[in-house]
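Students often ask what a 'structure token' actually looks like in practice. Rather than answer in the abstract, let us consider histidine kinase, a protein of 424 residues. Its sequence is given first.
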Amino acid sequence: MRELSREELLTRIEELEQQLIDSEQMVEAIKMGEVDAFAINKDNQSQVYTLQSGDYAYRVLIEEFSEGAINVTEDGLIVYTNPYFCELMESSYNQMIGSSITDFIGEDSKLKFDKLFQGSLQKKTKGEINLTVNGKIIPVFVYLTSLRPHIATVGIIFTDLTEKKRNEEVILEYQDNLEKKNNELNQNNKELASFAYVASHDLQEPLRKIQLYSSRIMERELNDVSDTGKDYFNRIIGSAKRMQDLIQDLLAYSRTDTVKGVFEMVELSSVLEDVKLELMEEIELNDASINLISSCKVNVITFQFRQLLNNLISNALKFSRPGQSPQIKIESDIITDLDIDEVPKKRDKSYCRIVITDNGIGFAQEYSEKIFQLFQRLHGKSEYSGTGIGLAIVKKIVENHNGYISASSGVGQGAVFTIYIPEI
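Now compare that with the structural description of the same chain:
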């Protein structure tokens, strides 16, 4: 280490003496209360922070603040503004300083701002007002507080509400559109109710008469009707029957959404027994067997779930292979690790999984979604009866239960329907 010369030592001593004098003066000022200060211990050393150093940090914070901040005299003259407020007002710092804050207040807000400003001389005030900038209106939230007794000014913070108001307008527009859509929906529901009444009464009445009188002619005038005439009458009766089935299925489909039901825990086996009683004739006619391999409790609207099973089993009986007895197998279990994109995962949520398998004619897998759509048929009416609504009703019932249904098959390989119903 190099030794210092005499001149360097004297200079260093003078610097230390001056630092000592400055420190003694600062300590004395702190003792007399002329300067606020606080000490922080760091690395076993005390570091003294005065109001001056703290004020500098505060000023840097205000300068970088992402909200408008100004100081105004009690007469309303601007004596300080941060850069953000200058940017908001599209003015420079020099243009802002010395201006009156009222020059920037919208005409519709002057009285309200004056009330807030006068109130801030006694206590903190806040509220929403409008600023005007080059003919534009800027909605803001203001927070005012008097800086007395330290300084005779009022500090004001401005929060730009433009984006918030814009979002509110969008929300109001959506709400207005939603209200219109709800009104349209209510009107559609009324029309649907009217259609259901017409379908269940007015449309079916002439159908019943067509069937009745056609049957009477076939019974009483059989000998007087030619073979061609008999064929025509049989076609009339068959068409009337198909239309009646279509009307009844449409009614069932429309009521699936509108009819409210009570959820209750029931054994799958008990619902299945009811369905087997309803379909007893078809089951015996087709020499079908229905085997329940395993049963679990399900939380369902019982009459809807009964219809669901009825439709699926009826389908299995209808689309059986010629010359082969229908074999229908039903399995169920409770699962908690459901991994299906269409079903939102919920923590600690369990599902009853019901799998219905048959040995019928099946269908190409590419149609696994199409079969659940309204009026979709994969086979001609001459081959298999039906309206193309049964599986659409099944899907709607599953959706009413917040569940999910899928179908898998192959031509000539039977079909598998898998249903997931929330356990609770």
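One point worth highlighting: The longest strand covers residues 136-146. Ask yourself how you might have guessed this from the sequence alone, and why that guess would often be unreliable.
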